[in-house]
């Protein structure tokens, strides 16, 4: 037997990723991107809601100020 034949027999074939880690990391990257996108959308929605709450508070304050100018108690029945 020559050296080439001996080397071919002694080499073991080792799978590159025996546990499928590469495919799992690809899936995790996709999931991470999805989570980041949802987080961004949620932050935008919260910012919009904060602005709307601020507008409602201003409206309530102006209504309350108008009632005080007219000497109307908001709690009378």
Automatic annotation (TrEMBL):
Compositional bias of kind Basic residues: 1-14
Span list, region Disordered: 1-21
Name used for this protein in its record: Uncharacterized protein
Higher taxonomy: Eukaryota, Viridiplantae, Streptophyta, Embryophyta, Tracheophyta
């Amino acid at each position: 037997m020559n050296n080439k034949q001996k080397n071919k027999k002694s080499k073991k074939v080792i799978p590159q990723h025996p546990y499928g880690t590469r495919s799992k990391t690809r899936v995790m990257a996709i999931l991470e991107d999805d989570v980041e996108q949802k987080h961004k959308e949620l932050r935008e929605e919260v910012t919009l809601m904060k602005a709307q709450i601020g507008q409602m508070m201003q409206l309530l304050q102006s209504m309350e100020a108008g009632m005080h100018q007219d000497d109307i108690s908001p709690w009378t029945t």
